[in-house]
Amino acid sequence: MKAQTMMKEENHTRNGVNVDELFNTIDAVKNSPVIARFKFRANNQWIDGGHNRTTIKDFYGIQKDHKHEATFKLDADEPPLLLGTGKGPNPVEYLLTALAACVTTSLVFHAAAKGIVLKSVESRLEGDIDLRGFLGISKDVRKGYQEIRMFFKIDADVPQQQLEELVQLGPTFSPVFDSITRGVPVRVSLDK
Amino acid sequence: MKAQTMMKEENHTRNGVNVDELFNTIDAVKNSPVIARFKFRANNQWIDGGHNRTTIKDFYGIQKDHKHEATFKLDADEPPLLLGTGKGPNPVEYLLTALAACVTTSLVFHAAAKGIVLKSVESRLEGDIDLRGFLGISKDVRKGYQEIRMFFKIDADVPQQQLEELVQLGPTFSPVFDSITRGVPVRVSLDK
How many Å separate Cα B28 from the centre of its chain? Predict the structure, then answer.
């Protein structure tokens, strides 16, 4: 892995990110901002009880549709304690997954752009939910997360005192962090 | 499936949800609100470039820790167009997955509580992101989703004109819908 990473360095790849392509992308978007408008998509099918399946197969960007290399299928379910059958993570755990993945990728990409070599990045997340909201028992209790905490362990070629700055690249640039902390308008309607 | 559903009805199960247990849970929480305080958890490990893996294995609720039946591993990656290697859905697609799954489960559980029998529930979601935010090109462009749209197709034992009301049970009770639309404080720090 180390040898592979060093070889990649010669091809202008840092942290597994092709930095030449990254800077080319930034230049292309500066010249033609319309190519930066992406649409991400998902389809969901209810199976039974708390069990449902989301399919991810295509997205729109650079002014056309693209198929993913593979169609991804993601099963969600509640654990038996929450009246499900445990066939997958539950939806609020998928939200933590989205956040963990996005803050990590944002940190990795922006560290690569800044010339910082990462050796390892790990994180753990915990979020608080009071189920009185979902159950409709109290209107004073919110249905969603009250707070989410994310803790990083990072090994990188920077002085210890710069690690704090490095960690903040994640939340500074992450689309999911921005979506969750600042809120997104979501329209839910019947398909006509 | 139909026969199975009818058999379950006799066991006070509706839409795959044990309605007796659901009402027992609501009564238990009313008597002892502390048991409704849950903590959901995730661990993430960076692999290379845009590829990282989230592990979901336990959660806290009813005043103790619980292990899931299985440990769930979820790979995230960017497609090659976004400088990844396509080994999984990307983080913003995981966010749509969380939303799809949660709005669906919330609709199914609350329909069950109201005595509404569902035959099928499908949804498709689309969200808009302008990558100038993530790339740090424009401070006026937000990094996260600008809007998310969710469209349902539902077959249920209700008059057509009540379908609109039924659909709104999802966003009304969903923890992920509430988290995404209203925002959640997220603290990101180094693990000490």
Answer: 24
A chain contacts of residue B6, beta-carbon cutoff 8 Å: none
- Residue A146: closest C-alpha in chain B: B184
A66-90 tens-digit pLDDT? 999 999 999 999 999 999 999 999 9
Largest CA distance in chain A: 60
Q: Which of B44, B173, B127 is nearest to A141 (CA)?
A: B173
pLDDT digits (tens, 9 = 90+) for A109-128: 999 999 999 999 999 999 99
Q: What is the pTM of this model?
A: 0.94
Q: What is the DSSP letter of A102?
A: H
Nearest to A110 by CA among A52, A177, A172: A172
Residue among B43, B88, B150 minimizing CB distance to A186: B150
- At A53, phi and psi to the nearest 5? -130, 130
Cβ pair B152, B49 in contact under 8 A? no
